[in-house]
Structures are given as structure tokens and as C-alpha cells.
Amino acid sequence: SKMATPKANEPYFERASPFWMSLIGVGFTIFGLAVYTPQSVPWSMLGPLGTLTQYLIKNHPVQLYRGFWIAWGVHTVEAIIAAILTTMKNIGGVTRLKWIVQTQLFGLASLYMLILYKPKAKAS
Fold first, then answer.
1. pTM of the model
2. Residue range 12-34, pLDDT digits in tens
3. 65: which residues sit within 8 A by CB, 6+ positions away?
4. Count of beta carbons in the 10 Å neighbourhood of residue 7
5. Largest alpha-carbon pair distance within the chain?
6. What CA–CA distance (Å, rounded) separates 94 from 82?
7. What is the SS3 assignment for 71?
8. How many CA within 13 A on the CB side of residue 118?
9. Distance between CA atoms of 69 and 47, rounded to whole angstroms?
10. What separation, in Å, do the N-terminal and C-terminal C-alpha atoms of the chain show?
């Protein structure tokens, strides 16, 4: 996909791809439900994913719990990197917050676009 070009005085922001947002959103939701309310989901209706999840809930609940929080921790580190990069790339205000929140929720699907963004040098 081509990079969006910000309008003259607007800081650069690009929404993560709907594909990745959906995949990561559903993944985190299933992960969270498996860890915190496994009995609330009809796992058998989710095919092979449900079977795998049921197996993990039954046989590896501690690893599932740790995995959930490790994944959340990784996203938190990525959000901190986004905070640093937005400052380095002169992206401030609400737009900076959008990058940080989007990266916390969707990780590399967001951070990657921010890493690729090269601000135009200001004419002196």
C-alpha cells in the first residue's frame, strides 16, 4: 500500500490495515477470553482454533496466562517505541496519541508504518 501524504500542516497518521487490525483484535479477544472466562465461549464452534484453545485451557493454563501478558507487554514496549519515534519525527498532539494507542492495540501492524515514515526536511 502507498503511504498517505499528510496535508501541509497536518501531522502524519496512517491507520493500520483492516486485515491486521481484525486479526490482532480477534486474536487478543480469544486469548483474553481463554485466560479469563474460558467457560463463556462455545469453543467447539470455532473449529480447529477452538480445539487448540480448549487443549491449551485444559493442559497449559499457566502458559496461556503468561503468554497473554507477555503479548500485552510486547505491545506496551512497541507503544513506548512509538512515543519515542513520534517525538523524533515531530508528530505531536492528538496524532501522537493516536499512534501510541494504535500501537498498543495492534503492535507492529501500526509501528511498522511509523518506522517507515520519513518526514520531509523543513525548508530553512
1. 0.85
2. 999 999 999 999 999 999 999 99
3. 35
4. 8
5. 63
6. 13
7. helix
8. 2
9. 25
10. 31
